[in-house]
Amino acid sequence: MSSAADTLTETPLGGPTLPQERRLVTSIPGPRSQELLARKADAVAAGVGHTAPVQAVAAGGGVIVDADGNSLIDLGSGIAVTTIGNAHPKVVAAVQAQVAQFTHTCFMIAPYDSYVSVAEALNRITPGDHAKKSALFNSGAEAVENAVKIARKYTGKQAVVAFDHGYHGRTNLTMALTAKSMPYKSGFGPFASEIYRAPLSYPYRDGLDGGLAAKKAISMIEKQVGADNLAAIIIEPIQGEGGFIVPADGFLPALVEWCRANDVVFIADEIQTGFARTGEMFASDLFGIVPDLITTAKGIAGGLPLAAVTGRADIMDASHAGGLGGTYGGNPIACAAALAAIDVFENDGMLERAREIETVLKGRLQDLRATDPRVGDVRGHGAMIAAEFVDPATGEPDAALTAAVAKASIAQGVIVLTCGTYGNVIRFLPPLSITDDLLHEGMDVVAAALAAA
Ligand SMILES: *Cc1c(COP(=O)(O)O)cnc(C)c1O
């Protein structure tokens, strides 16, 4: 049988010289990693945390190698960024060629081809056949900030609705849009005004079908904000930090329909879900919705910092010349990397690979759930899969168990990330370049950590 996985096993994308194995030669952290972490504690602000106590020195395929010679299985992709694999050869070549040519002109001073080509590619691959335009930025939060600017300018209205459990970034406006106080907002206020929060569809916990959940959200919006005041609603089609919450069928289409009828811009924040992560190029495609605006970042450029707002040309063009931009936005090296990454997403079987990974991960987690009632829910799409851990007696979230399983997995050389409003979700975001063998071995380690917890 020849599948995308087989191809990837033969030539692990990114880092073909790195053995694709879990290898522990010291305890985690080893002495060199400990040394760096001590320097970090002295030199780096305490607010900048870390998940795995290692000093990374190389990464590719499905592994991260540390300074002590340990090789860890990567089930996090640096938070859904290295989707095509770390140091992917096509990205490396594109970056090397561009960095030798020119490193920066500022697109607002002297434009260049790669920025326009990235915009053309995004306009083509994002959902919907309508006329689209794009603008490029540096980070996800910056893209969200600009999507809100653009929607306000277009509608002449100010209010923005975000959702329970939503995550949109760490800048002032995006903190306001983000739901969870600790650690993202606590003590960092005051926050931007004219932000309102609506209830989300969370099938595992609200038991509502998509239509009813949408009705509840729309009723809140109409009563507490009013369509006359509302510029935009912003929502992650599948929530990331909030716990990989997949809304019930019908929820998102009902919101889109309400926005269309009320001159409200529908913004899909696909910063985590975009670029093949869910087994479709964008999660909006899973739900059959066409957003007015879409924000992207994370997986867009194979690890280089780049972000974008893409959407309806009439909305994107409503801002006056000079109103959008930034010194570094659409940096030529990041754009060269994005063009290489988008080529891989479109032509190297990435959607198929994400769906294969879904089958493996969901299969393994469903097996666990069948025998261990502490696994309350298994959900997600593609290579974006999560398990929610609960107290079987009460159904209450079990954050302590979740943290223990994650910590023990990392100590055994498997990098996993937690998430969720209640801190009780482990999320699996492997690079699509991981082999099935490593994926299974990673899940063996997680299962053993759960059994021991
Ligand atoms: C990560 C993320 C952001 C913020 O992106 P940064 O690049 O960290 O600023 C915004 N929205 C979603 C859905 C994200 O996952």
Architecture overview:
α4 (89-101) packs antiparallel against α13. Helices cover 40% and strands 16% of the residues. It is globular. 54% of the residues are buried. The strands form 3 sheets. Strands 4-10-9-8-7-5-6 form a 7-stranded mixed β-sheet, sandwiched between helices. Strands 1-2-3-13 form a 4-stranded mixed β-sheet. It has a 4-stranded antiparallel β-sheet with strand order 11-12-15-14, with helices on one face. The longest helix is centred in the C-terminal third of the chain and has 22 residues, at 350-371. The two termini are 38 Å apart. The protein folds into 2 domains: 4-74 and 349-452, Aspartate Aminotransferase, domain 1 (Alpha-Beta Complex); 91-347, 3-Layer(aba) Sandwich (Aspartate Aminotransferase, domain 2), CATH 3.40.640. The protein has 16 helices and 15 strands. The protein is α/β, with parallel strands linked by helices. Pyridoxal-5'-phosphate is lined by residues 139-141, 144, 167-169, 236, 240, 269, 271-272, 297-298.
Largest sheet: 7 strands, mixed
- Share of residues in helices: 25-40%
Task: Report how far apart the termini are.
Answer: 38 Å
**CATH fold category name of the largest domain:** Aspartate Aminotransferase, domain 2
The dominant shape is globular
In total, how many beta strands?
15
Computed structural class: alpha/beta
Number of helices: 16
Which hetero ligands occur in this complex? pyridoxal-5'-phosphate
At CATH level 2, the architecture of the largest domain is: 3-Layer(aba) Sandwich
Strand content: 15-25%
Strand order of the largest sheet: 4-10-9-8-7-5-6
**Whole-number total of structural domains:** 2
CATH C-level class of the largest domain: Alpha Beta
CATH-defined superfamily of the largest domain: Type I PLP-dependent aspartate aminotransferase-like (Major domain)
Protein name: (S)-3-amino-2-methylpropionate transaminase
Pathway: Amino-acid degradation; 4-aminobutanoate degradation
Region (Disordered): 1-21
Cofactor: pyridoxal 5'-phosphate
